[in-house]
Structures are given as C-alpha cells and as structure tokens.
Amino acid sequence: MGAYILRRLLLMIPTIVGIMAISFAVVQFAPGGPVEQVIADLTNAAGSDRLSGTGGDLLQGGGEGGQYRGAQGLDPEFIAKLEKQFGFDKPPLERFLTMMWNYIRFDFGESFFRNTSVIDLIIEKMPVSISLGVWILIFSYAISIPLGIKKAVSDGSTFDVWTSGVIVIGYAVPSFLFAILLIVLFAGGSFFDWFPLRGLVSDNFYDLPWWQKILDYFWHMTLPLITLLLSAFATTTLLTKNSFIDEIKKQYVTTARAKGLSERRVLYGHVFRNAMLIVIAGFPGAFISAFFTGSLLIEYIFSLDGLGRLGYDAVVKRDYPIVFATLYIFSLMGLFVSLVSDLIYTWVDPRIDFERRDV
Fold first, then answer.
1. Looking at 105, 130, 151, which one is the last position of a domain?
2. What domain range includes position 45?
3. What is the mean pLDDT of residues 130-151?
4. Which spans of this chain does the record mark as coiled coil (predicted)?
5. What pTM was estimated for this model as a whole?
6. What span, in angstroms and rounded, lies between the C-alpha atoms of 81 and 102?
7. What is the rounded CA–CA span in Å between residue 225 and residue 230?
C-alpha cells in the first residue's frame, strides 16, 4: 500500500501542472482582462467628468490604445505601467513558471483589486464554505445511506414508492427556487419571520454565552442547509438503494440466508461492504461539490460570503491571483480526497489491494 500511495502522490504533480497549464492558456485568450477592467473604469470615470464639466488627466490626446479595447486616447506610458503592475510585461511562459514556483511554496501573492493577500482572503471566506460543506456531507450521508438501505429492503412497497416520489421531486426542484420559497415562508417574506436572512452568525455573536453561540450558529444555518439537502441526498439515496438491490440478488446472499444467518447479519455483515463501494466512489465528487461549487447560488441568496462567492466575483473581475489560487487549492484537495477514497475502499473491503494491480 505504501508504494501505491507514493505513486499516487507523484502522479499528482503532472496532474496539477496540467490543470493549471490548461487554465492559464485559456485565460490568455479570454477578453476583458484586468488591464481592460481598469481601462474601462477609468474611461467611464473620465466620461462622467466630462458630463459634469471637469476634465481628466487620465486621457491624453493622441495616445494609442494598442491591443486593449477602449484604451484609445490613454497615455501609452500609463498602459505600460498597468501591464507591469499586473505582471503582463513578461512573456506568458515566464509568468506561468513563476506562478507555479510560487504556488509550490503556497505563495499566492496579492489580489489585483482587493489590496490584500489571496491566502488571507481564502482563510477569511473559509468558515462559510466549511460550515456548508461539512454539515451537508454529514447530513446527506446520514440520511441517504439508511434511507437507501430501507428502500432496498422494502423495494416495491408503499414506503419505497412514496419516498421515491419525494426524492425525485426534491431533486427536480432547482435549489435556488426552493431557497426563495423558504425565504418567503420563513425569513420575513410574506408569512413568518422565524429565521435570519443573511450572515453566518448574529452581530452580537461574540457577546453570547457558548450555548447561545451554538444555537445562533444553527439558527442562521437552518435555511441554507435545508435548501442544499433537498438535492444533495437524492443521488446518494438512489445509488445506495440500487447498489444494495444488486448485491441482495447475488448467490452469496442466498447462501448466507440458507445457513441460518439473521437478515440483519446478512445485510450489514455481508452486503454492506460490497454495496457501499460504489457509494464511496462518489465521495470525492460530492466532497468538492459540497465545499466549493454547490453553494454558490445559496451563498448569494442567503448573503453568505464564502469561497464560492469569492471565486465567482474573482472570475467576473478577472482577479487572476484569486482565480488561479482557488483553482490550485481546489484541485489539490480533489486529488487528495480521491486518494483517501481509494484508501477507504481497502478499509471497507480488505480484498481490494491496489498494489497488485497492473499499472
């Protein structure tokens, strides 16, 4: 197992380099870079000055805009200073190699437009994403696995049919629509004002005793978690059910029952290990989705300032240090979670030995 782990760790190096290289190359062809963002802001500000009767020194007559859209009339020296400020005065290959060398040392530099270090921004936004991600994973798996097993055991029953209907409807309803419905019903919309509409905690959170801090935290998290749970557990529940049904129909289950083993012993002592392998295989994707991608709209709707919102705003503003830093961190976490998932395979089913596979 040690050799397999070492191989996987070494394979992460070309994988992460490839991810970053492709993303870096795509960005080079994307219009509206940070220099153009600044130029747009300056030209809009200069236009407002003209309308108000004040001149602006930013626009210099006769200047050529070069390769940047909307830069005509700006001082070429000013454009050159902008390029140097954002690092675009260097060739793309040099910029990419410098970026990767810094990222290896977890030096992500400073944001282009927020005037602070990228790592401080990520740490600042992390509590929201961790809160959503951890609780969604815990609650969704805690609901999905027992429910999937129950549905598999009672396949075709009234319980199975009704719960399947609820799951399908819940999965089909877009999470943002359900979030708006919850706000209208329970967050001071048109009916009840039971839950807060924004933030992870109240303004007086640090003045509360410890037990009220816990209650306040979950009071703020209730509606976002309910919204995310609606669709989070649906896939895992149906996957668990179908996996258990496939295993229950196999010969070794019939043999175990013929030997007089109890249904519980058959189900959890024999079927569980084999049926859970496919559920474990989906854990890395569920982990990454819960932490970084699945909560973007929810963060906006409930005014939660997390990593999803930070990454989206960075893409819109072309704040490349944040874009590439979050991509690098998310990719690394995804690769490590995938490795942990394989190790859990061996724990659930000791018959699996990755070192004996042909590579």
1. 105
2. 34-105
3. 85
4. none
5. 0.74
6. 23
7. 9
